[in-house]
Write a structure and sequence with these properties.
The chain is mainly beta and 205 residues long. 13% of the residues lie in helices and 59% in strands.
């Protein structure tokens, strides 16, 4: 239940940010003068939330994320920007196939996510707040019994903040949810859900 509430809340925030970007595009002039690109690295941890939901789930699935961050600015204004985000990644996983089986397994994932991000600048660009929706193909070596392994899609909804550390170097922190499944291409396909916290650095140029 808490994961569903979090998903709804993040989706509402994403819509508000999207409407803000439309308003921003309509009211201000473009300022494509600098910092159209951002490149960095972010690492994170995700869990399917058994501890948060009093073990209502019938599986355990943890993921350690290692992602490259490649941003391209589509529209940039004084108050915000709309950006594309590409995330090549290799992730390590730990899981129990079912809750009643006290056996832990190790696995890995790799894939590429692409998304659309809206960024809101505050304090003259020293801090920015953003929301992003992304998806992309993944491969998983092992999964709980509820989900077929192999080719999957990773869907992500997250919000975050970036803080200038030094000149064009920024600290990046985000929180959100991730869902992986195979769109019904292979059974079983009940999906795996993670609550994810990530942090990293990127360089703007």
């Amino acid at each position: 239940m808490k994961i569903k509430i979090l998903a709804i809340a993040l989706f509402i925030f994403f819509l508000l940010f999207a409407f803000g970007s439309i308003s921003l595009c309509a009211q201000e002039k473009l300022i494509f003068k600098k910092n159209r690109y951002k490149v960095g690295f972010i690492t994170g941890y995700g869990t399917q939330g058994a501890n948060l939901e009093s073990r209502v789930e019938d599986y355990d699935y943890e993921v350690h994320l290692y992602q490259l961050q490649c941003y391209y600015t589509l529209v940039k204004k004084k108050r915000g920007s709309i950006e594309l985000l590409l995330q090549p990644q290799f992730n390590l996983t730990k899981l129990r196939p079912v809750d009643w089986l006290d056996v832990e397994m190790q696995g890995y994932e790799f894939g590429l996510n692409g998304g659309l991000l809206y960024r809101k600048y505050v304090f003259k660009g020293f801090i920015s707040l953003y929301a992003c929706l992304s998806t992309g193909p993944h491969f998983t070596s092992r999964t709980p019994l509820r989900q077929a392994r192999g080719f999957l899609f990773s869907d992500n909804l997250f919000m975050g903040t970036s803080i200038k550390v030094y000149k064009k170097l920024y600290l990046d922190v985000r929180y959100g949810i991730r869902h992986i499944s195979n769109a019904g291409l292979k059974a079983p396909n009940n999906g795996l859900n993670d609550i994810v916290f990530s942090e990293g650095l990127y360089f703007a140029f």
